Amino acid sequence: MTRAMKTLVTAVAIVLAFILLWLVLLTPNQAGAATSQKQLQIASYSSSTTTTTPRVVGTTSCRSTSRTIVTRNYLGYVLFRFTGYGYWCWSGGKVRSVQWSQSGTVGGQIWNTYEYLGLSSDVRGGSVGGNYVYRRAYGNFRACIPALHWCQSQYPFVTLTLRGDGTSSAGSGF
Fold it and tell me: Residue 52: which of 66, 42, 67, 31 has the closest Cα?
């Protein structure tokens, strides 16, 4: 084997090793969901919900709730988090006001190339003055290997239902 051929084989091996390492470190996706050619299987994701104690002002009560989905790679490192927030007031079994927001963050590892691009889409239901309000917010996260001109996007969602009796429910996934 010539010296040029050895150099080429070494370079190809290094590139393949880098791609394999990147896939292991940066492969989040839908656990338990059907995969496509663009998306690989995630190691794990978890969700948590936090709801505050109601604050009473006159005949109206208000509280906030949030739901967070955390995505991890095969080694357990956090790749990204997406959180949906809801703040609502109610009285007489009706929702009187509501405020929605969301945030996204990525893990701090040097090899983590994920970035939060903002809200991908937003689906709402119910109404202020009604018995409930509903929101499903989809985040938009993307990781790229610039040298290969390849990117992978992820769209985690957080669902919040806020009711006129002060209760709430939440869900999340991909």
Answer: 66
pLDDT in tens, 25-35: 555 544 433 33
- How many of the other CB atoms lie within 10 Å of CB of 64? 18
Is residue 84 a contact partner of residue 135, using CB atoms and an 8 Å limit? yes
Q: Are the C-beta atoms of residues 170 and 49 closer than 8 Å to each other?
A: yes
Distance CA 50, CA 123 (A): 21
Q: Which amino acid is at 101?
A: S
Q: Which domain holds residue 141?
A: 3-173
CB 135 within 8 A of CB 86: yes
- Length of the chain equals 174
Using an 8 Å Cβ cutoff, are 114 and 78 in contact? Answer: no
The pLDDT tens digits of the residues spanning 110-142 come to 777 889 999 999 999 999 999 999 999 999 999
What does pTM read for this prediction? 0.77
Is the pLDDT at 39 greater than 50? The verdict is: no
The domain total for the chain is 1
Taking the C-alpha atoms of residue 126 and residue 24, their distance in angstroms, rounded to an integer, is 41
The answer to whether 71 and 164 are in contact (CB under 8 A) is no
**Residue 169 structure tokens:** 């429910």
The answer to whether the beta carbons of residues 92 and 165 sit under 8 Å apart is no
